[in-house]
Fold ATP synthase subunit b.
Amino acid sequence: MNLNATILGQAIAFFLFVIFCMKYVWPPLIEAIEKRQKEIADSIASAERAKKDLDLAQANMTEQLQKAKEQAQVIIEQANKRKVQILENAKVEAEQERKKIIMQAQAEIDADRKRAYEELRKQIAGLAIAGAERIINCSVNETVNRTLVDTMVAELEQ
């Protein structure tokens, strides 16, 4: 066999193989490669969108967290103001109740003092009458009268 004819036959077979591959093998391969490239590009774009969404969500979350902290601070301040107001009201009410109790106690003390004064007056009047009766019953002797008055004074001191 001739070497040139073999090379020429191999070249023709190779050429036919290349045409067959270009017509039947390459289009599905290129299509699969392009499809895969498109899927990868879509996945990358989707990942970038997801990253942007995540960044936006984190920014919103940070903003909402800041708002929540501000609202909590406002609520705490309102609660503290309310606490101070309640304490002030309780102090005022306690002061009023204290004054009322003091006034009631003073009134009771005054009433007891008046009763004691009246009772003491009645006892003094009774003693004076008793002393006068003793003086009248006894003779009009100066020394006897003086001893009677001294005994009445001693009874009053007790």
User: Anything to note?
Assistant: The chain has one domain: 23-153. The mean pLDDT is 87. The helical segments are 3-137, 142-157.
